[in-house]
Amino acid sequence: MVRELNEVPPTIPMHIFEFVNFSHLTERVRSDVPLTDVLGRIAAIGPVQTKIANGISVNTLQIDLELQVRVCLIEL
Predict the structure, then answer these.
(1) First-to-last CA distance in the chain?
(2) Can you tell which superkingdom this protein's organism belongs to (predicted)?
(3) Cα 11 from Cα 38, distance rounded (Å)
(4) Closest Cα partner for 65 from 31, 36, 30?
(5) Looking at residue 35, what DSSP letter applies?
C-alpha cells in the first residue's frame, strides 16, 4: 500500500525487520500493515503461475512453510 507523507520523517531506516508469531500471520492478510518478514523451513514450493490481479498479468509462486503457513510471492 502506498501512502502520501505530509512531512518528511527525520530519518528513513535502511533496513527494518518486523517478525511476527506464526499464529498472527493470518490477521495480516489483506490488511494495510507493513509487509511481514517470515522465517521458516520450506516444506513445499509450487510452480510459477501467471494470474490476473487488478487487470494486470503477474507471476506468483506459492511456498508452503512448516507450521502450516502458506506464503505467496508475487512478481510485479
Answers:
(1) 14
(2) Eukaryota
(3) 25
(4) 36
(5) P
The position carrying cell 503457513 is 69
Amino acid at 53: A
| 11-17 own/partner pairs: CB under 8 Å, 24+ apart | none
CB 9 within 8 A of CB 16: no
> Domain limits of the chain?
22-75
Tell me: the pLDDT tens digits for 13-71? 666 666 677 777 777 777 776 666 666 677 888 898 998 888 889 888 888 877 666 66
